[in-house]
Amino acid sequence: xxxxxxxxxxxxxxxxxxxxxxxxxxxxxxxxxxxxxxxxxxxxxxxxxxxxxxxxxxxxxxxxxxxxxxxxxxxxxxxxxxxxxxxxxxxxxxxxxxxxxxxxxxxxxxxxxxxxxxxxxxxxxxxxxxxxxxxxxxxxxxxxxxxxxxxxxxxxxxxxxxxxxxxxxxxxxxxxxxxxxxxxxxxxxxxxxxxxxxxxxxxxxxxxxxxxxxxxxxxxxxxxxxxxxxxxxxxxxxxxxxxxxxxxxxxxxxxxxxxxxxxxxxxxxxxxxxxxxxxxxxxxxxxxxxxxxxxxxxxxxxxxxxxxxxxxxxxxxxxxxxxxxxxxxxxxxxxxxxxxxxxxxxxxxxxxxxxxxxxxxxxxxxxxxxxxxxx
Amino acid sequence: xxxxxxxxxxxxxxxxxxxxxxxxxxxxxxxxxxxxxxxxxxxxxxxxxxxxxxxxxxxxxxxxxxxxxxxxxxxxxxxxxxxxxxxxxxxxxxxxxxxxxxxxxxxxxxxxxxxxxxxxxxxxxxxxxxxxxxxxxxxxxxxxxxxxxxxxxxxxxxxxxxxxxxxxxxxxxxxxxxxxxxxxxxxxxxxxxxxxxxxxxxxxxxxxxxxxxxxxxxxxxxxxxxxxxxxxxxxxxxxxxxxxxxxxxxxxxxxxxxxxxxxxxxxxxxxxxxxxxxxxxxxxxxxxxxxxxxxxxxxxxxxxxxxxxxxxxxxxxxxxxxxxxxxxxxxxxxxxxxxxxxxxxxxxxxxxxxxxxxxxxxxxxxxxxxxxxxx
Lengths: 375, 375
Hints:
The structure is a homodimer. By secondary structure, chain A is α+β, with helices and mostly antiparallel strands. Helices cover 18% and strands 41% of the residues of chain A. The first copy, chain A, folds into 3 domains: 2-110, Roll (DNA Polymerase III, Chain A, domain 2), CATH 3.10.150; 127-243, DNA Polymerase III, Chain A, domain 2 (Roll), CATH 3.10.150; 256-369, DNA Polymerase III, Chain A, domain 2 (Roll). Chain A starts with a strand and ends in a 6-residue tail after the last strand.
């Protein structure tokens, strides 16, 4: 087949980068299939599969004969990236050698033994099966970014390295917690809920990759298909499939305090800046927060080096003054994942987690951050 | 003293980055001196010292009292970087605590025990002593970039990890070689030669840092002072001092072949692109070059994976056709360090190094690249 270097490089890069970033096994072979109307590029590791599709009708591709091959991914990626701009000819011969011809450059790459039964885009993937929902690509990316930072990085409880995705008729919720200090939750309404409920746990590391893979296009939609052993994200020109984490996700309903002693509203950007500053001298990442009257004071110190004090005006406050010591690293990463301007923080006592919710009455996200007990 | 956060951050970053990049020991303390007319920032590791100066007359600095302190460099750097824009007040008290005050932010940093006799900019450094030369900052940076890639990375012969800097009246020359495969040489004429000759060997790793530290300003000049145990680069607002490598640098005069069998002229950019491409499949970095008639063909292969062939038109050729196998990695790094458009390559036989010189008659730089013997 003939196609442009740019399209070829873009397609291969899309698949290659997703799978070579991922620590869960190495991508060795990249599968290329030239059909009647499309070229499909596909790669997978033990945990994630990415299939990218270039349509003959959308692009300058000429396919002379149907065919497929699996090539050494890293070499293919490197060589395509370095070709001059212009047209590229790909040919597979009977000895399973891929020839790449572009200008004066002639490359031969040996094919690998074929991947077993690769999935190819076929019309039924786009049909609405019972266990599927449609969400906008941007909402999905925003949800993932908000919760994924709260997953556990320890393999001690594998289930907590995943994000719980819950569909309840028209409500889609994602929850992540490290089981000790942090919990993050975000919900959105699905417009075309198909009346099914279900939940799965997806490896956090795969969701981070999916954020990178999905388009930024405002209009783009993604179909999420839940199956027993995997989840599929089907977009305009790609299908991403992730394994699931087996097991029962712990209930998080009782973690959220039902009452509070005090409540403050803050500008997120200013709050982030002062935390960033006091964090520099925060031994063990500990930052102490004092709320009094209309201001919030932060303190940190490092033994034998020094200390920092900073303060911030509150946008609003209801309830008593309070002091609490928290892990500044987790607070910073939580604040970085919030897209709003302001935040509402509820204090429910020395041993209760801080509750971080939107400043406006709009209960779509919620973070819990447990205090650190000192002494 | 009072000064702007930007100036403070810039000064501290300048000193901090130079010394924390460098693998030769860690920068622990950063020295700050506030004099009558200047603030001096200084840091050093075992091998390199950087002193940066901010003048009271050039900037908005108010010094209330002369004083100095040595602070934990990393913490100082991090905290200053994160302050809000605006004015910063620095104060040292009798307990050797540095207070940093900026808006609502108050930082205390403990001073370290003082560095022994730090050097401060004093007028005599700018006087012309016998063993000094003046060169433009840009020429110096260009020279260093061309030769420094050829130094040895092995500590087996420490002298070869350095660059030979040779002053012969009005000619300044730098030479580097790994003693096996590569040699690089660059000369420039010094306008104000002061009639002295001398040579020193400077650690390559320090020269790489000096390239980053020196201004890009077209007009900027640098005074190079040679002493017995160190070399100093004195610029407008900084002094950089490097240790020297002891020992006798091996003679490189007999390495350059005096005759040649064939000579070709090539466009450097196109040559680099084809090498970049064939390099992807070059086992052990080996690339074979065939020169025939008016073209140059390149080949590489990786066992069991595949091979690449590419070709390039020559701009000119005199002499016989030839074939040679070279290390593509070294050829690429050599070509990347050359600023010209074209290059002249001389072939003097299967066992002689390739000679790379300017295409135009202008003998200011020269590279040698030994062929790789196969079989």
